[in-house]
Amino acid sequence: MQDRIVVSVDEGLSDLIPGFLTHKRADVGAILGAISKQDYAQIGRIAHRIKGEGGSYGFDTMTELGRSLEVAVSARDGAAATTLARKLLDYLDHIDVVFQPSDD
Predict the structure, then answer these.
(1) Can you tell me the distance from the alpha carbon of 2 to that of 94, in angstroms, rounded to the nearest whole number?
(2) pLDDT tens by residue, 56-90
(3) Domain spanning 5-100 has what CATH number?
(4) How far is CA 94 from CA 4, 47, 53, in A?
(5) Residue (of 48, 83, 93, 53) closest to 66 by Cα position
């Protein structure tokens, strides 16, 4: 069993994080569905969004997975995209968010 992954997030985002994480789970489902249809354009759009949003909210691993998904899409590598989608889901299953005071 994988250990928990602690992610520190600015407390100003505390109201947004639960919904954000729910949406990322839905994105994984959408990616897997798009893979089954070989809809690489759809996977690419979602991967790009994950890449951008992850870092914005403090989830740097999510950004890296989004970036790797974009690479898999450009190679039209459904197997790699599937593996990365599962890694993203595993990551989501193991994160514990800790809210930190703002630096303001």
Answers:
(1) 7
(2) 999 999 999 999 999 999 999 999 999 999 999 99
(3) 1.20.120.160
(4) 5, 20, 19
(5) 48
End-to-end CA distance of the chain: 38
Tokens 């899409």 correspond to what residue?
73
Q: What is the 3-state secondary structure (H, E, C) of the chain?
A: CCCCEEEEEEHHHCCCHHHHHHHHHHHHHHHHHHHHCCCHHHHHHHHHHHHHHHHHHCCHHHHHHHHHHHHHHHCCCHHHHHHHHHHHHHHHHHEEEEEECCCC
**The Cα angle at residue 91 between residues 102 and 67, in degrees rounded to 5:** 85
Q: What is the pLDDT of residues 7-41, one digit of tens each?
A: 999 999 999 999 999 999 999 999 999 999 999 99
